[in-house]
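Q: Please design a sequence for this.
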């Protein structure tokens, strides 16, 4: 804190704050979703900077700002359609429906001209079932696959790689033609 040398902030997955020169630390955010205890700030924070008395956090989910020393945060990048897709899958009959896995931002589904997050974490390969387009698949790092019904609204199965094997960071998969 530029105004108090005993107040230190550190970041990584969470944002941490010490008010006693680093002897003790408290978490300042929840990177999963907003809850009653901690405000949401996306995980994987890469920078913390003060400007005009406000604390800014730059992370894989955008830019967040706190005007009250980390007690609350505002998402300054809300509404920006930005992200890096690892893979995308398209609907077999409707070119406007797309599912994709994004680096550090989960899986998103595009329908009705809007993007909806259907899962968090690291989104990887994503496909839409060619025999039943209401069934969607998305994967996480190392090959974990989620199966969604109701056009991506309900996770109804977690498909794991059998045994003690794991896939690559981005594990490709395809649907059998029949």
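A: Design:
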């Amino acid at each position: 804190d530029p105004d108090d040398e005993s107040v230190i902030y550190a970041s990584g997955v969470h944002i941490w704050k010490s008010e006693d020169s680093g002897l003790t630390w408290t978490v300042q955010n929840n990177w999963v979703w907003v809850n009653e205890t901690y405000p949401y700030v996306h995980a994987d924070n890469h920078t913390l900077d003060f400007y005009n008395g406000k604390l800014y956090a730059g992370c894989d989910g955008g830019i967040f700002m706190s005007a009250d020393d980390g007690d609350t945060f505002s998402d300054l990048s809300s509404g920006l359609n930005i992200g890096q897709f690892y893979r995308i899958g398209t609907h077999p009959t409707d070119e406007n429906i797309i599912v994709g896995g994004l680096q550090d931002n989960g899986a998103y589904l595009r329908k009705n001209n809007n993007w909806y997050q259907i899962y968090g974490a690291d989104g990887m390969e994503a496909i839409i079932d060619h025999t039943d387009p209401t069934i969607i698949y998305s994967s996480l790092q190392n090959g974990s696959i989620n199966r969604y019904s109701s056009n991506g609204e309900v996770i109804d199965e977690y498909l794991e790689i059998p045994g003690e094997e794991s896939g690559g960071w981005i594990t490709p998969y395809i649907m059998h033609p029949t």
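Q: Thanks. Anything notable?
A: The chain has a mean pLDDT of 87. The CA atoms of residues 161 and 174 lie 14 Å apart.
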